[in-house]
Amino acid sequence: MFVQELVLRQRTEILNALCSSGSAEHLEQVLDILLSQGELTWEDYQNIQVSGRALHCNARKLLDLVYIKGEDTCGLFFAAFKRVLPDAKGVGTSSSGCSSTLEEKEEHQSTCTETLLTQRPSLVEKLRGCIDGALEDLVTSGHFTSADCCEVQLPIHTPCQQARRLLDHVRSKGESAAKVVLQFIQHKQEPVSPLSQEKLTPPKEVLKYQKKLSSSISAQSCFLSTYGGTSHMSLDDIYTDGQLELAHNCVDVNGPLGLEDIVGAVGTVNKEADTVLVSGEAGGGKSTLLQRLHLLWARGAALQDFLLLFPFSCRRLNSEQRELSLQELLFQHCCWPDRQQEEIFQFILDHPHLILFTFDGLDELKQSFSDEHRLCCPTQRAPVHILLFNLIQGSLMKGVRKVVTSRPEAVGPLFKKHLCKEVLLKGFSPSGIDCFVRKHHSDAHVAAKVLESLRTNTALLGLCHSPVLCWIVSQCHKELLGCGEGSLQTITDVYLMILQHFFQHQSSLKNTTGLCWLQQHLQTVLHLGKLAFDGIGATCYIFSGTDLETCGVTEKDICMGFLMQSKDISTHAEGYEFLHLTMQCFFAALYIVLSDNTDRSTIPKLFETQKIKEAGQSSRCFIACLPSTDQPQRPSGGETTAAETPNRQITATFVSGLLSQRHRNLWLHCCPSAVMEKRVRQVVKCLSKGMQKHFKSIPQPVEGEKKSMHAMPGFVWLIKCIYEMQEDRVAKDAMSKLEVDHLKLTYCNIGPVECTALAYVLQHLRNPVGLQLDNNSVGDVGVEQLLPCMHICNSLYLRNNNITDEGIRKLLAKTIQCEHFKKIALFNNNLTDACTQHFSRLLKIKQNFVSLRLGNNNLTEKGAKQLAEGLKCNHSLEYLGLWGNKIGDAGAEALATALENSKTLLGRQWSGECRSMCPLQHHQELYVTGRPVVDREPHNQIRSGKSDSSDATQHPCEISVVEKQ
Ligand code: ADP
């Protein structure tokens, strides 16, 4: 096959390989090689590498260009691609001639400026660790100003990107500047490393310690823990990138973050702080992500700016009863130096910027964050949580970088005050799910079947965005493939599947009793259930032999595989923990549903809506669920546990699911039906009451305005519980009392899983509502999940939600048939010209549609022209928002012409690259400001049909329609 055709055929695979990590590095390396080969001109490069544009768009531009350039360029592109990503699957050609062409071309060079181009890939490598030195030489020689230096060293750039920006600047400064850089590189003797930058050679003992530390970390992190028990899965084989985003909007960051960006300067909001928070739901992959970072560091493949990395698990720290000094904490909990402990500790104190601490699962710590007890002395002993809190604040060891993971609900403003940034881990993307399943099943045939069955069950596919659920689904593929289409819908279904899977696969017992699988293993469920239930009440995740004994857990129960072994650090005794925290919550829920030992008030207390409180105020909600005799010892001082509410909520969600009508047959012979019925009634009552409480909090609307409800914390959780029950009457009852015109769920962590639940519940609303889901992680899969409630939506706000053309295609195919649907806002998503045909169709067909906002997407002239086609036939649209796109002169003109006779439009904004003014209605004019889009004042209005747009191409300008004075 011709390579040019391959570029087309393998487009998806190539784009995935170049962009799926979220980092621009692979693409930029390919560009470096193509530039050095002379396959791309400087102008080509600038057209592709548009800063601020989404990574995928830049990559698409490159593919378009190499395709246009023909067979030879495509061949070289594949050679460059293979050099950058040698292991990429499903991409490339079998022809090997391409790579030799790469080598030959690199030989030729004459002027220094040319050398900068032809040697670009190796120069980037050489410069990346010594940008400061090169800039210094350029400033001293008078070629660079301090403004040039600032541009190069923008903190959002990685070291490699800084090197490239430096080369780009030097190129514009001419031959003598290029010479200075080449000379600088020639004189540079030392290999690149931050250690060498500061001319530091750590003492031999420190280097020895580093070796010991890294080999211990490598050993600890090379296998994934959920595979414990019978089998191990190597992290390398299974690790799949999750979606990382900054919690705060950051104008300079486009698209997802890479792993190393977590620790890097990207998105810093508080320069004084050294702590980064990685937040994500339980099972979202936080621990695995840290494990990956640890492994990469230990192998020397990432984070090499740090000489020493100290990993801590808050779960393990819980069992440390002693007061420790910082030195004891580091050496006893991470790695013991064989000799010269004092010297090594002194080195750590003296070089905080070379040290990285990670704290996994802050939400699992028994004590909530507090900054009351200040500690600055590194030799003073203190309880470990006090040491930890002081490290996070920076009172102890200021300058050490810290990465902390936690569930979002478990950290309050007091803690956030000490963060330099917060990164959100949002589970797997659709391609991540695909990738994970393929990695999980070495048999490609099985992987394809699992994926196929996921695609036919979108509710399940939605759940798989959570890595832990993706793991369960993959693990239980036989059950999955065996069950009828669509039968697995809720999180409870998925956990019941794994329960059955473990019992049937890990038990040697043959079922000759005629009992159903649950009946057969009821005692195991109750023993483990009690352990889990008591543990959650006491914020205990690691259990001693005595704990197991107290709950009646036997050797046989342990063998089922739900528990894995772990070491109790302080006593060095063997301990046990559940495979995952969510598994512990599931067993706690089973206990609540099946046991006859729980209190009558257990369920009502479980469903109480409580706010998380910070230190000092005890919530003690879960503990109160326990019969008083079972209440475990709480830490003194009445401290609260940040984990209490989230754990209680997860458990309550499972309780709702387990008490669903669909599962009652399972309990039939395990629990008296009268007891079961009573528990069901209790849950239904709690859900109804919980919703009432939310509805009562809705303020009366100001006269003339719509009645709007902003979701309070806990609302989404209640919705999820109702979904788990899968009983229409419960959903109907809950929604019948909601009387609002507008439901606002912005910044509520809404992903595909939540969308499924929302759609299920909202479809029971009596009157149409506006649904505002801005700033969540809905994505295309979430959009698909929302379809069942579109008939009851009159407007849908999905700003900033990672939606692409595919999601829009499905959404519009549905909403075009929905009578009430009149407004949509999609500002800041990933839309391109491929979606405008669908909008055009919507505009033509729906003559009651009033508002279309598509600002800040990737629409161009082509898309604008397609929209114009629809606009010509539409007689209802009042608002059109298109700013922040690149619709260009011709696009703007097409729109203006289409709108010429519009009698309904009230105000429009879009950005283009043109200077034109088109007459509209007699009372309206179209203005082009000639100013960057950020500056929206209509100064500088230029009246002309068309003109040269040389500076306008540099600064996309805003066009707006205004009423004539
Ligand atoms: P959290 O710490 O957020 O609760 P974990 O990291 O423990 O979540 O993830 C739960 C399980 O999900 C892991 O044990 C693993 O099986 C799977 N998992 C999570 N993240 C990944 C990943 N990036 N790649 C592969 N599997 C993952």
From TrEMBL:
<keyword id="KW-0067">ATP-binding</keyword>
<dbReference type="Pfam" id="PF17776">
    <property type="entry name" value="NLRC4_HD2"/>
</dbReference>
<keyword id="KW-0677">Repeat</keyword>
<keyword id="KW-1003">Cell membrane</keyword>
<dbReference type="InterPro" id="IPR032675">
    <property type="entry name" value="LRR_dom_sf"/>
</dbReference>
<dbReference type="Pfam" id="PF17779">
    <property type="entry name" value="WHD_NOD2"/>
</dbReference>
<keyword id="KW-0399">Innate immunity</keyword>
<keyword id="KW-0832">Ubl conjugation</keyword>
<dbReference type="InterPro" id="IPR001611">
    <property type="entry name" value="Leu-rich_rpt"/>
</dbReference>
<keyword id="KW-0547">Nucleotide-binding</keyword>
<keyword id="KW-0391">Immunity</keyword>
<keyword id="KW-0433">Leucine-rich repeat</keyword>
<dbReference type="InterPro" id="IPR051261">
    <property type="entry name" value="NLR"/>
</dbReference>
<dbReference type="InterPro" id="IPR027417">
    <property type="entry name" value="P-loop_NTPase"/>
</dbReference>
<dbReference type="GO" id="GO:0005737">
    <property type="term" value="C:cytoplasm"/>
</dbReference>
<dbReference type="GO" id="GO:0045087">
    <property type="term" value="P:innate immune response"/>
</dbReference>
<dbReference type="Pfam" id="PF05729">
    <property type="entry name" value="NACHT"/>
</dbReference>
<dbReference type="InterPro" id="IPR001315">
    <property type="entry name" value="CARD"/>
</dbReference>
<dbReference type="Pfam" id="PF13516">
    <property type="entry name" value="LRR_6"/>
</dbReference>
<keyword id="KW-0449">Lipoprotein</keyword>
<dbReference type="InterPro" id="IPR011029">
    <property type="entry name" value="DEATH-like_dom_sf"/>
</dbReference>
<keyword id="KW-0564">Palmitate</keyword>
<feature type="domain" description="CARD">
    <location>
        <begin position="108"/>
        <end position="187"/>
    </location>
</feature>
<feature type="compositionally biased region" description="Basic and acidic residues">
    <location>
        <begin position="937"/>
        <end position="949"/>
    </location>
</feature>
<keyword id="KW-0963">Cytoplasm</keyword>
<dbReference type="Pfam" id="PF00619">
    <property type="entry name" value="CARD"/>
</dbReference>
<dbReference type="GO" id="GO:0042981">
    <property type="term" value="P:regulation of apoptotic process"/>
</dbReference>
<feature type="domain" description="CARD">
    <location>
        <begin position="1"/>
        <end position="82"/>
    </location>
</feature>
<keyword id="KW-0472">Membrane</keyword>
<dbReference type="InterPro" id="IPR041267">
    <property type="entry name" value="NLRP_HD2"/>
</dbReference>
<dbReference type="GO" id="GO:0005524">
    <property type="term" value="F:ATP binding"/>
</dbReference>
<dbReference type="InterPro" id="IPR041075">
    <property type="entry name" value="NOD1/2_WH"/>
</dbReference>
<dbReference type="GO" id="GO:0016323">
    <property type="term" value="C:basolateral plasma membrane"/>
</dbReference>
<protein>
    <submittedName>
        <fullName>Nucleotide-binding oligomerization domain-containing protein 2 isoform X2</fullName>
    </submittedName>
</protein>
<feature type="domain" description="NACHT">
    <location>
        <begin position="274"/>
        <end position="410"/>
    </location>
</feature>
<comment type="similarity">
    <text>Belongs to the NOD1-NOD2 family.</text>
</comment>
<feature type="region of interest" description="Disordered">
    <location>
        <begin position="937"/>
        <end position="965"/>
    </location>
</feature>
<dbReference type="InterPro" id="IPR007111">
    <property type="entry name" value="NACHT_NTPase"/>
</dbReference>
